[in-house]
Amino acid sequence: MAAPTEVYLDHAATSWPKPPVVLEAIQRYFAEAGGNTGRSGHRRSIAASRAVSLARESLAELLGASSPDDLIFTKNATEGLNLAIYGLVTPGARVVTTSLEHNSVMRPLRHLEQRGRIDIDVVPADGQTGELELERFAKALRGAGLAVATHASNVTGAILPTAALAAAARDAGVPFILDASQSAGHVPLAVEALGASAVAMPGHKGLLGPTGTGLLYIAPGVEIEPLMRGGTGSLSELEVQPDFAPDRYESGTLNGMGIVGLGASADFLRETGIEQIQTQMAALGGRFREGLATIPGVTVFGPFDTARNVGIVSLNVGEIPSATVSRLLDDEWGVMTRAGLHCAPAAHRSLGTAPNGTVRFSWRHATTEADIDAALAAVRSIATRERAEAAEARA
Ligand SMILES: Cc1ncc(COP(=O)(O)O)c(C=O)c1O
Prior knowledge:
alpha/beta; binds pyridoxal-5'-phosphate; Aspartate Aminotransferase, domain 1; Aspartate Aminotransferase, domain 2; 4-stranded antiparallel beta sheet; 2 domains
């Protein structure tokens, strides 16, 4: 079989291509609706509101939220995480988190810390396995005001013991925010059953929706201070923000086309089945890791066990800077990856890969075996060349 000319393996940044139903739904939205949601009484506004409601319902079904109104539309995971962190934190609180967090969690926390508003307790988690000492986490929760953890490392794909973390937070009476950025759409996620106070995720990665979309699930009864206030289309007579979800958190005109596209991808994921997606992704991961294990000079990070991984492999080739490897992969083989620290410097420090970082390969269920084999051939070629050059330099 001829090698593909373009191999997109950067799905952990954003998935591409989107399922055709996403583009069709966006076109249909502008043809049949296109008005502003919840604002006016005319047919195109009503059609837009209805399309957004249907998308919210489909996403609630996919993600296990019994009320669609518990899902707030955001523009990405970062907005949801900021909304949850700033909205749940109390002055003087100690916030417990892990060493595998993305800067979308760490930067808001460090900002609050720098202003003397919180203390941060970072519980070390193992980037290779996703394991962390649950006892240490539970102990840190005593007297804490908030806990935030990622579901899966965006550097190695390692899945953390999220159910245990959520249960420990619940036992300690501490609000718990889950960052499901790398797991949503890849592994079964039942946000309500998990028992977290809030779960943030992008719409544009594993959920296969357009960029500019994200979601924040807020559990029933959890009160979060909104980040923004403004027009919601509802209760126009009031000069104060409505107090009910989702309007309380969705000020300003919604990203109707993005949301409708995300709703279509949610339908697609429900039809395909997340378990099926997980199985296909695990098979691709097994093939990739087994292939990498046969290439001398390549260091691979993250769990070998595909059941504990969300579809990410990080690696380095000899002493070559990760940015150089990533550029060669793209320039010479059309293999698209992401190099560097992946907005998670602490995770790289714990892997011993800072400041060079790693080359991150990430796939989706529709990635083919030919794509994986093309990536393997490219890595093998770079590693062989590096070993030959190193031997020549020694001679
Ligand atoms: C673990 C994690 N959290 C948060 C984010 C931020 O996602 P977004 O770019 O949608 O804001 C990412 C994106 O790479 C991520 O991997």
